[in-house]
Write a structure and sequence with these properties.
Blueprint: E1 4-13, H1 19-31, E2 37-46, H2 53-71, E3 77-80, H3 83-87, H4 93-107, E4 114-116, H5 117-127, E5 132-137, H6 141-153, E6 157-163, H7 169-172, H8 177-183, E7 194-196, H9 209-216, E8 220-221, H10 223-234
Parallel strand pairs: 1-2, 1-3, 3-4, 5-6, 5-7, 7-8
Helix pairs in contact: 1-10, 2-4, 5-10
Length: about 250
């Protein structure tokens, strides 16, 4: 059987080193159980080095150029990879961003659905029936609160969160997995339906999700996993469990 190849577009910060590894890992892992689907990956980058409001706003404005560039490929679905940039623009902004970027692609004659990591996190938590969550984040205090409030405004209670106060986005990509596992010891998780190991697509978590699920004995996920799951839904597939032990404990 010749597999159908889907082109996956990614709109990523210029300093992001994680999204272009974790999204392929999730999607290629999912495809290994099938013979009919494969993926290629294509990125357009927005300048951003520090996770601060001014750089996030400038970067988000540049996402329009990225959508136009990706429509030249063309691609089948695009993922906007910066969760905090979307959430920092105001509650509910992921809907406006997805519509605006999709409209740009359509105007270029190559329409494709757009998934924001911010919207995907909230949508997949709701889809799985997880209404109370705990979060791990790399951000400074002010942005971490914005993220927690954004998730809560989408109808998902945040019972606790921990943030590492890292503002250099290159350093966010170097946070080791054992730091995330250790942070779970100080995170309130008893009342959570699910723990989001990385409420950020730059803070790596793919390699420790299964270990975190075993440690906590409950569902664990990440923004990257939720983005990959929503991308599959936009392509018409049921994501199931992308990697054993993640969304189900």
């Amino acid at each position: 059987m010749t597999p159908r190849i889907h082109r996956i577009g990614q709109i990523v910060p210029s300093s992001n080193t994680t999204m272009e590894t974790e999204i392929p890992a999730f999607l290629n892992g999912w495809a290994q159980a099938r013979e009919d689907v494969g993926f290629t990956f294509h990125a357009s980058r927005m300048r951003m080095k520090h996770v601060a409001m001014d750089e996030l706003a400038a970067m988000d404005a540049d996402s329009r150029r990225c959508a136009a560039e990706l429509s030249d490929a063309p691609i089948d679905v695009a993922g906007y990879a910066c969760l905090v940039a979307i959430m920092a623009m105001g509650q509910g902004y992921h809907r406006r961003s997805e519509a605006a970027l999709g409209a740009i692609a359509a105007e270029n004659g190559r329409p494709f659905p757009v998934v924001t990591s911010a919207g995907a996190l909230c949508a997949e938590l709701a889809q799985m029936g997880y209404r109370r969550v705990s979060l791990l984040m790399p951000y400074a205090d002010g942005l971490a609160k914005i993220v927690a409030d954004y998730v809560a405004a989408e109808g998902i209670e945040v019972i606790d969160y921990r943030n590492f106060g890292v503002t250099d986005n290159q350093e966010v990509g170097r946070i080791p997995g054992d730091r995330l596992l250790t942070a779970l010891d100080d995170l309130e998780t008893d009342g959570a339906d699910c723990v989001v190991m990385s409420a950020c697509v730059q803070m790596p978590s793919f390699g420790v999700l299964a270990a975190a699920g075993r440690k906590l004995g409950k569902p664990v996920t990440s923004t990257a996993e939720c983005t990959a799951r929503t991308m599959l839904r936009r392509l018409g597939y049921e994501p199931g469990t992308l990697t054993a032990g993640l969304m189900t404990a």
